[in-house]
Design brief:
400 residues, mainly alpha, 16 helices
């Protein structure tokens, strides 16, 4: 449980921050051990849902900036306590500012940096904390934070580009349906009256269009309500464990999109494990942590099983052989790395390879989707208009 506190230190200065403890008494005790006199202590769970969802979040780019700043300060021989205190006072993000202030207080009370960061999983992932712990053990904290900044920046750029590639077609599809609905509910009903009153034979394709239009006009509100509830259910289902696994399977099985996300996850796996191995973290622990942060239930399950096999004495490449989701070329290259003692180097090469593959796949997708969507939109509107305008033209011709 997290508590927001106000306290007075030995110099008489007022301090504010957040402390994690199982209950209120333990929180007070932790603050008193830091030499603080507690004047106010409130549970942070009182924060509203709106604040938690939209205001109390830390964008990945802020973590990247923080990592670079802390690396520079450590390289300049600034103490950890002073470095975190300085950054806490110069950080714009509300949650990150409060977190760094609390981390600074924990460090002052004798906690290690990784231990202090580990108390804030909403800001610092398990991967991040373990990397910092490896830096503390090796005495290379400034290098570790620089590695983290580079790694997070690569992941941010890769993920952002992938999302951007999917936003464009989603926007085009949304516009297409909006135009179709607008035509069916406002334009066609006005024109259909003229066609029906003419008394002429109506073509079958025009009858279909008029039928759809009448259905949407009469029952459109019920359809809208259905999709609202269906969307809410899908949103709820997507947050459950079973839902995440089901949707992940559908996404990876979808042509083109599935291939894109597979390469994204493979790049993330190779990059994560390479970064941790280079920092001195064991292969078993690297696999376990990567499984937790890869972002795919399918690949998390694969890495969990692989980690168990590696812990039992198997080679990492051998542990991946039974999983079709891992390409043979990746397994072969990891095997070469294991035989030559350069697994981290091989994984770095694989990470760069799959990053380029993702970039190429995104560019290809965007290049194909744009003309296809425009053609489909034009054909849809054209068919719709032709179904209505041809009968109207016939009416005009008979009158003439």
């Amino acid at each position: 449980m997290n508590f927001n506190y106000k306290a007075i230190n030995s110099e008489g200065n007022t301090k504010e921050g957040q402390v994690s403890a199982a209950n209120r008494d333990l929180a007070i005790g932790a603050l008193q051990r830091r030499g603080l006199i507690v004047t106010s202590l409130e549970t942070s769970e009182k924060t509203s849902f709106l604040q938690m969802s939209f205001f109390d979040s830390v964008p990945l780019k802020d973590i990247v900036i923080f990592s670079r700043q802390i690396s520079t300060l450590f390289e300049s021989d600034v103490s950890a306590l002073k470095a975190f205190s300085m950054l806490a006072g110069n950080t714009e993000n509300r949650l990150l500012r409060k977190t760094l202030a609390t981390v600074s207080d924990d460090i002052q009370a004798g906690s290690s940096i990784s231990g202090a960061l580990n108390r804030h999983p909403e800001v610092f992932s398990e991967f991040y904390v373990n990397m910092v712990r490896a830096g503390e053990e090796s005495g290379k904290l400034n290098e570790i934070f620089l590695y983290l900044a580079d790694y997070l920046e690569r992941q941010y750029a890769l993920t952002s580009k992938t999302r951007s590639a999917l936003v464009y077609p989603a926007f085009i599809i949304a516009v297409f349906f909006a135009v179709m609905i607008l035509m069916f509910t406002t334009v066609i009903p006005k024109l259909s009256a003229l066609i029906v009153e003419s008394g002429q034979e109506i073509p079958i394709y025009t009858k279909i269009i008029l039928g759809i239009s009448n259905f949407l006009v009469d029952y459109g509100i019920f359809i809208l309500i259905f999709f609202v509830f269906f969307g809410a259910y899908i949103g709820y289902f997507a947050r459950t464990k079973k839902g995440k696994e089901y949707l992940d399977g559908i996404m990876l099985g979808t042509p083109i999109v599935g291939d894109l996300f597979q390469k994204l996850y493979l790049s993330r796996i190779a990059d994560n494990i390479d970064t941790m191995l280079s920092s001195g973290i064991s292969i078993v622990r690297s696999i376990e942590i990567t499984g937790e942060v890869v972002g795919s239930p399918t690949y998390r399950s694969i890495l969990k099983k692989a980690g168990e096999e590696v812990q039992s004495g198997s080679a990492f490449s051998a542990a991946l052989l039974s999983h079709n989701e891992i390409p043979g070329i990746m397994i072969q290259m990891i095997q070469v790395g294991e035989e030559t003692g350069s697994t981290a180097k091989i994984l770095k090469t694989l990470a760069r390879f799959y990053q380029r593959e993702v970039d190429d796949a995104v560019d290809t997708m965007v290049g194909l989707i744009e003309p296809v969507m425009i053609v489909l939109l034009a054909v849809g509107v054209g068919v719709l208009l032709a179904s209505i305008l041809v009968p109207i033209y016939n009416v005009a011709g008979s009158i003439a």
